[in-house]
Amino acid sequence: MWKKRLLFLCLAGLTLWAAAGEEALPADAAAELPAEVKYIALTFDDGPRRGTTSCLLDGLQERGASATFFLVGEEIEGNEDLVERMKAEGHQVGNHTWSHVRLGGTSFETVSQEVRMTEEALEELLGEKGYWLRPPYGLVDEGMEISVPMVKWSVDPRDWEKRNTAQVTQAVLRDVRPNSIILLHDIYPTSVEAALQIVDALEEEGYWFVTVEELLRLNGITPEAGVMYRSGTG
Fold first, then answer.
1. Closest by Cα among 140, 167, 184, 162 to 49
2. What is the mean pLDDT of residues 188-192?
3. What pTM was estimated for this model as a whole?
4. 47-92 residue pLDDT tens
5. Which CA distances in Å does 229 have to 39, 112, 226?
6. In angstroms, rounded to a whole number, what is the distance separating the alpha carbons of residues 209 and 227?
7. What value does the mean pLDDT take over residues 132-139?
8. Domain 2-13+38-229 classified CATH 3.30.70.240?
């Protein structure tokens, strides 16, 4: 995992160097930069869940793939070790509200409480602040003040509905493009199996799996609070 992670950081550095302009590259760097580096973000909602999330983390670690986990706050208790493991293994941890309420059409007080409670639980556990938000169902009212970046998705295989590994895998492989943000749910065994098959297939095609924050920064985007990002290009 860590050898591949180090290689990713080197490639990412060269990619950003190249984006800054040819004159910014060291003389011998051009030969080292791959002809085409394809980055993608795999994201998971609604966990952590003991049986499925732990298997997913094992599989991602074996493959050297990073992901982003948007956690439901009330699911954290009893699964603290899984959340700590996410951070330790280089994944991005995000906020999916406390009880998975629909934020669209909801009062500011409810939205604030749902986001704050999960933020506080993560801050107490991981010791950081500012966890990015994925609103349940991807909905939040226009004009609602959100103090962190928000993340939607560009590929949705509706894994929660299909509950079929082959169908979910096929749907993602059909729709995926470089800079895609893929939505899955790590509470379903079929989705975990599909996720690992997706990683295997796309790594064979030259894709690198990174966190959402890494994906945006690799495209020269500085994430802003209150902005909803749907892919690596914005």
1. 184
2. 99
3. 0.88
4. 999 999 999 999 999 999 999 999 999 999 999 999 999 999 999 9
5. 16, 20, 10
6. 23
7. 97
8. no
> Domain residues of the chain, as ranges?
2-13+38-229
In this structure, how many other beta carbons lie within 10 angstroms of the beta carbon of residue 187? 20
Q: Are strands 181-185 and 38-45 parallel, antiparallel or unpaired?
A: parallel
Please give the residue that has the higher pLDDT: either 122 or 15: 122
Rounded distance between C-alpha atoms, residue 216 and residue 41, angstroms = 10
The reply to whether omega before 48 is within 30° of 0 (cis) is: yes
Summarize the chain as % helix, strand, coil (round to 5). Answer: 45, 15, 40
Catalytic residues: 45, 185
Positive or negative torsion for Cα 108, 110, 115, 116: positive
How far apart, in whole angstroms, are the C-alpha atoms of residue 85 and residue 126? 10
